[in-house]
Design brief:
Elements lengths: L5 E6 L6 H12 L2 E4 H8 L7 H24 L4 E6 L3 H13 L3 E9 L1 H14 L9 H8 L13 E6 L2
Parallel strand pairs: 1-3, 1-4, 2-3, 4-5
Pfam families: AAA_33
InterPro entries: P-loop_NTPase (IPR027417)
Protein name: Cell division protein ZipA
């Protein structure tokens, strides 16, 4: 009998370290890592130039990703999703995805203050100049307007990671 898989997903403001943490968790758990940024950049090269573009293409990607992830989970393999779970609606999507696949789920909330997020965004734009147009302080504040802090009662498994500058 296969062990029960786990869907692991992250909540945290832009620059909180979700991508870094997702890589670490995937390696620790020997899980499949699926990155929204990677899929979007391959499927829609040079087409995402604004936050509205991101919203549009991210929404188009979700149905494909949902089936793909559920198929992996049903094999007993855990999946780490480097996709934002920064609104209640997004977190509900992850919860339904895992319930439908009959897998466990784990929400990891990276609670990071704005100053550290911005510092990490600036560093990332230096290390990855191709992201500088999107990864900046102005975009941080635009995206953060939509952020909804999670409640540990939204899911059965919740992990809090606090980091401050």
């Amino acid at each position: 009998m296969l062990h029960r898989s786990t869907l692991i997903y992250f909540c945290g403001k832009m620059g909180a370290g979700k991508s870094t943490e997702s890589k670490k968790v995937a390696a620790e758990r020997n899980a499949v890592l699926i990155s929204e940024d990677e899929w979007l950049s391959k499927l829609y090269p040079n087409q995402i130039t604004s936050f509205d573009d991101y919203i549009k293409y991210s929404a188009q990607l979700r149905p494909l990703i949902k089936n793909h992830v559920q198929n992996i989970l049903r094999t007993g393999t855990s999946v780490v999703m480097d996709f934002p779970a920064n609104t209640k609606k997004q977190r509900e999507w992850f919860n339904h995805l895992s319930i439908e696949a009959k897998s466990e789920s784990l929400l990891i909330y990276l609670k990071v203050n704005n100053a550290l997020c911005i510092k990490q965004i600036v560093q990332r734009s230096i290390e990855q100049p191709s992201r500088a147009a999107f990864d900046n302080e102005e975009m941080f504040y635009q995206v953060t307007k939509y952020f909804e802090e999670p409640d540990k009662n939204e899911t059965t498994n919740f992990e809090l990671v606090v980091k401050n500058a």
